Amino acid sequence: MTALRDQHDVLLADLDGTLYAGRSAVPGAVEAVRAAAERGCRTAYVTNNASRRPTEVAAHLVELGFPAEPADVATSSQAAAAMLAERLPSGALVLVVGTDALAEEVSAVGLTPVREAAGAVAVVQGHNPETGWAQLAEASVALRAGALWVACNVDATLPTERGLLPGNGSMVAALRTATGLAPLVAGKPAPTLLRAAAHRTGAASPLVIGDRLDTDIEGGRAAGMPTLLVLTGVSTAADLLAAAPARRPDLVAADMAALADEPEELRIGSGAGWSVKANGDGLVLSGSGDPLAALRALCAAHWTDAERPAVVTADGADAAAALRDLRLGDTDPSSATVAEDATAPGAAR
Question: Does 3.40.50.150 match the CATH number of domain 4-48+189-264?
Fold first, then answer.
């Protein structure tokens, strides 16, 4: 058997929702990353979260049991600072809406971080639990005066041990509403961050792994890299079934433990034990086996004709149980999932 981890030299792994949620590791993630490293497949930690320094991220990872050095961490704050440096003269004033870690990245590229709008020629915005009205007001003043706007990421939510909480994208949305403007985006789904991480590690055959279709998977596809979606964070089975073409992963797994599996078992369309047929109302699932295999088969069938309503009906008790396990059916053996990309901003969930 050729395991997935043996076909890649570097894993470009997301953090929040993929390897950990808040202060706790996702079950099995530490063991999966360590096992990959023992077989020569290293992990680069690629995060949209711009609130912490790479040294702090690495320390947290080590505390949880992951093998990590600061050089293994690539953050959207680094990507945002690089984007600013490409567009601004040395020493230019940049209003930072974010943590001191983000401000330090701005300084590191020769720009001057400030906290007030006066004289600022750019605004950079990253996640900070302390961001409030006063900080957004300063940014609004600068943006209305013509400042360049760079967002580290536009993730609407942030996975934590308490569930999904507002992410940087929610704060970005407030400024969008206040100014009518839109920022440049440095982190995923833009490919810059992933490509920089691959270049830094010398990856010849990277694999992008994440829990979000709208950032990790779309970013990996934009970067031209193979992608693995793990269902341990934000995106759900219903989201996957309704995903737009740019957000469709190559592989789907329950969690990071799938790195030990054969890639073909994880590929969309690999639905051992299951059969999917189309009818006038949508799709009919029959058979038995792993519910995730049923999901892969359903996605392959639905994606070939996404105009068909994404309504799945179970034929038999095993199929009904699989849909309940995937939260596509609950107590009813059929499920009307949204017929649009469920991860798009404003889409029904």
Answer: no
pLDDT confidence tier of residue 346, bands split at 50, 70 and 90? very low
In the chain, domain spans: 4-48+189-264, 77-185, 269-336
**Within 10 A of 163 (CB to CB), how many other CB atoms are there?**
10
pTM of structure: 0.86
Residue type, position 293, single letter: A
Is 77-185 the same fold as 4-48+189-264? yes
- Out of 6, 9, 16, 341, the active site residue is 16
At the fourth CATH level, the homologous superfamily of domain 77-185 is HAD superfamily/HAD-like (3.40.50.1000)
- Is 16 annotated in the active site? yes
Q: Note if the bond before 189 is cis, omega within 30 degrees.
A: yes
